[in-house]
Amino acid sequence: MDPSFTAEQDEIRRTLRELLRRRCGPEELRTALATPAGHDPALWAALAEQLGLPGLALPAGHGGVGCPPSDLALAAEETGRVLAPTPLLATSVLAAPLILALGTDAQRARLLPRITDGTLTAALAVPGPALATALTLTGPGDGDWAGGGRAGGVQARRAGDGGGWRLYGEVVQVLDGHSAGLLVVAAHAGGFARSRTLLFLVAGDAPGVVRTRQTALDATRPQGRIQLREVEVELLGEEGTDVSPALARAGDFAAAFLACEAVGAAGRALERTVEYLGQREQFGRVVGSFQAVQHRLADVYVQVQAARSAAYYAAWAASGQGERVGGLALAQALEALRRAAAEGIQLHGGIGFTWEHEAHLYFKRAAGDELLFGPVHRLRAHAADAAGLFERTEVAV
Question: In the UniProt record, does the keyword Cell membrane occur (predicted)?
Answer without folding.
Answer: no
